[in-house]
Amino acid sequence: MRIVLVGPPGAGKGTQAAYLAKNLSIPHISTGDLFRANISQGTDLGKQARAYMDAGQLVPDEVTIGMAKDRMSQSDAVNGFLLDGFPRNVGQAEALDVMLKDEGVKLDAVLDLEVPEDEVVKRIAGRRICRNESAHVFHVTYNPPKSEGVCDTCGGELYQRDDDSEETVRTRLEVYHTQTEPIIDYYRAQDLVVTISALGKVTDVTDRAMEALKKSDEG
Hints:
Largest sheet: 5 strands, parallel
Radius of gyration: 18 Å
Strand content: 5-15%
Number of helices: 9
Order of helices and strands: EHEHHHEHEHEEEHHEH
Number of strands: 8
């Protein structure tokens, strides 16, 4: 299957992508991994991306698209893939359609992980990370430490990253609504969108997703 995974920050896309890719025996291709691999390998695209990032600028779509195209052409992705973080906007979605058409293939489904905005804020703003090298992660509601502000594992101080503050989370959500959410309507017009609730246990969400993808594939 060829799947695009979408959803707001805090929806659990990375976690679900790993489980789904394993269950479906297809590679999980994330934007973060693409950037890290190209930069560490010193590819031309990696060098271009690094230059923009070092200048504090957004990496242009054409660079991201080039990385994605290269990765999807590798042998392990011939029979399918799960894209996470790409496409990020309608322009990238259109470019992906062209890429796939050139290869004579098409997407099977766009899996939309739905989470209420207040739950997203609660999930992300509640995270606390150990300052020590281990960087163990806790959550004030879902996985609280035995002693407030203290890592259960090594006794280090727990803190909230600047990226996890409620104000930053709401800004990230606004960017998602403005830039990425429109691709759901773009793909809905192609009858590709499968929406599931991303609330509940991780395994329950995975089961829900697998069932929805199965029905989509049969349809």
